[in-house]
Amino acid sequence: MIGYAFMGRVHSQAWRNVAAFFELPAKPEMRVICGRSKEATEAAAARMGWAEAVTDWREVVARDDVDIIDICTPGDSHAEIAIAALAAGKHVICEKPLANTVEEAIRMAEAAARGPGKSMVAFNYRRVPAVALARQLVAEGRLGEIRHVRAQYLQDWIVDPDFPLVWRLRKDKAGSGALGDIGAHIIDTAEFVTGQRVVGVTGLTETFVKERPLEGGSRTDRGTVTVDDAALFVGRMSGGALASFEATRFATGRKNALRIELNGALGSLYFDFEAMNELWVSDGGAGFTRTLVTEPEHPYAGAWWPPGHGLGYEHTFTHEIKDFLEAIAAGADPSPSFADGLRVQRVLEAVEQSNGAYKEIP
Ligand code: SOE
Fold first, then answer.
1. Which part of the chain is the Gfo/Idh/MocA-like oxidoreductase N-terminal domain (predicted)?
2. Tens digits of residue pLDDT in 158-193
């Protein structure tokens, strides 16, 4: 694993727990974790269950006893690490968004297509049981032809203008702001649930707080925010649906509200990650009915607790690792692939360039 911060922690718990809950074709061994600071990486290794800690990712990629590389770093290093790992014959799972630019994502998708290793981009919300169930209902035709997709990802962690200029607020590190960090998730979720692709978009972005205190500096030491705080866009889907997307870090009071509503000719469905064990479905009658997605027959749910006991954010990563390992063992292509990640990247770029104009996705 490369990186040990938020994503490193949540992926580590997935690697650690996956074989305890799912019957797997192979059991992962947590060989080595890599980070820039020796002391912090060693502490992370001890806490999270990695056998070794190193500070140079190239050393990890070159090792014969490593089969899988898990990239949990900021976007500016995804392309270099993933392409080197794939060239060394490793399987690669990479955090989202796949890259900081379309050009990098193209190179990553090309390296993935060359193989021989398998690759996956970590859009974990596909693996929420309720989201996977929503996709099943759409695929079974229960909603009929989909007319509307309404997707939102609402957070509020930077509403305070004195929140520091962390890496997620710097274009050189993160590529974009709310757009790439959380907008990428709702593009993927919309495509996954509907089985349709975003084929064109019209968007607007805004940076509300243009300067913030430098990390570790005094409150008066401020730097420029170089990414968007919020992105709104509408789009057309390949199956004819009209879609609206809203990604913001300024939705005061909303912590991690990834929401999606679909309206079809026969019915509708609605999901909100802040109540992630629920899926609301309508057959067009008197409003929506709640399904608690914790029954053994629901996607992934049977591996965990009795009905009604519920899952959390971390389980989505365990499911992701399970699916990745199964695909590798079967010689199949994991999903979402780097090609899927590239498509999302093209939508992000189109939104950034749009400024109110309609952009088709190549
Ligand atoms: C921060 O906005 C963040 O951690 C994202 O980077 C993740 O992808 C999302 O799952 C939660 O919020």
1. 1-121
2. 999 999 999 999 999 999 999 999 999 999 999 999
Q: What would the pLDDT profile of 256-265 be if each residue is shown by its tens digit? A: 999 999 999 9
- How far, in Å, is the centroid of ligand 1 from the Cα of 251? 14
End-to-end, the C-alpha distance of the chain in Å comes to 33
* Model pLDDT for residues 10-65, shown as the tens digit of each residue: 999 999 999 999 999 999 999 999 999 999 999 999 999 999 999 999 999 999 99
Residue 344 lies in a domain: no
Please give the ipTM for the structure prediction. Answer: 0.96
Site to probe by mutation for ligand 1, drawn from 182, 188, 255 as the one with most ligand atoms within 8 Å of Cβ, is 182
256 and 238, same structural domain? yes
pLDDT at residue 216, rounded to an integer: 81
Range of the domain at 299: 129-275+277-311
Closest atom of ligand 1 to 124 CA is 10
Query: Which atom of ligand 1 is the closest one to the Cα of 95?
Result: 8
Ligand 1 center from residue 300 Cα (angstroms): 22
| 214 phi, psi to nearest 5 deg | -70, 145
CB of 181 sitting under 6 A from ligand 1: yes
Residue 287 domain-assigned (yes or no): yes
* Domain finish residue from 99, 121, 143: 121
Single pTM value for the model: 0.98
Q: How far is the CA of 99 from the centre of ligand 1 (A)?
A: 15
Measuring CA to CA, how many Å separate 289 from each of 142, 327, 341? 14, 35, 33
Which CATH number goes with the domain that contains 209? 3.30.360.10
Q: How far apart are CA 26 and CA 19, in angstroms?
A: 8
* Domains identified in the chain, total number: 2
Domain match, 141 and 96 both: no
